[in-house]
ER membrane protein complex subunit 7
Amino acid sequence: MLGLLAMLGWISTAACYAVDGYVANLRPEWVSGVTVRLEDVLTGQQDLQYITAGGNFTFHNIQAGQYLVTVDSPIVSYDYRYKLTISEEGLLANKLLYGHALTDVGPSDAYPLAFTGYKKHQTVVQRPGFSFWALIKQPMVFMGLITMLLMEGMPLLVSSLDEETLEQVRQSGGSIEAAKKIAEKHSK
């Protein structure tokens, strides 16, 4: 029992650290919803902070250990995260590219932590809404409408001709010459 109390006393008196950093190149409209996640490598316990309007973040009361610091944003992408090693000697920050193992870290980086991202590309393109006029303007639809009009209009046109004109068209075989003669006759 005394051992447990002694251990609790050691934990409560253990040194605590603060982890500071900033997210660079953020436009004011991109700041909303940007979070920084500090994850303990051993336990998986996570702490989450929203960045300030200036892009800064701070984690307080951090115990010695190894941590991953990740920035999550709905608008901005980041190619790397930081692996932090906090000890009595100080803080060691290494960039860790996504997809790499925790042991595959780059050289140590300057402190405070600095994240620079780039805007995510829009992968979903909004389709324009339905427009009847846009449908009619399509060449194939337009040609189909003309054909339908001719199919419906020609019988009406032929039925409106008098018997004498119809007989002339039948005798000429329906040639262009006959159509011209009929047009001249009706224009007089």
In short: The first strand starts at residue 17 and ends at 24.
